[in-house]
Amino acid sequence: MKSRPVTAPAGYAELHGEIAGVVDSIRLAAARSVNALMTAAYWEVGRRIVEFEQGGQGRAGYGEALIKRLGEDLSRKFGRGFGWRNLS
Fold it and tell me: What is the number of domains present in the chain?
């Protein structure tokens, strides 16, 4: 038993285009929101590292050991993107 091809009613192409436009715009907005939140999160991570390293002093004597340890621990927990090179 063969099924007959479905014929689209008048105006279908317009409806399809509108729905695709809504989905595309929402996906773009979601990606922008995620990017903004990740940028803010990474800035906050950097700020906290600097504050920890400075210990109330005007300048930090960045400890390579601290950054490497943080990189190892954060990579273990979150995966790629948190290595010591990215943190430094």
Answer: 1
Task: Note down the domain range covering 32.
Answer: 12-87
35 in a structural domain? yes
Whether the full predicted model's pTM is greater than 0.70, yes or no, is: no
CA distance 87 to 70: 8
Which pLDDT tens digits describe the chain residue by residue (88 residues)? 677 778 889 999 999 999 999 999 999 999 999 999 999 999 999 889 888 887 766 665 556 788 888 889 999 998 888 888 888 7
Within-domain flag for 32? yes
Give backbone dihedrals phi and psi of 14, rounded to 5 degrees, phi first: -65, -45
29 in a structural domain: yes
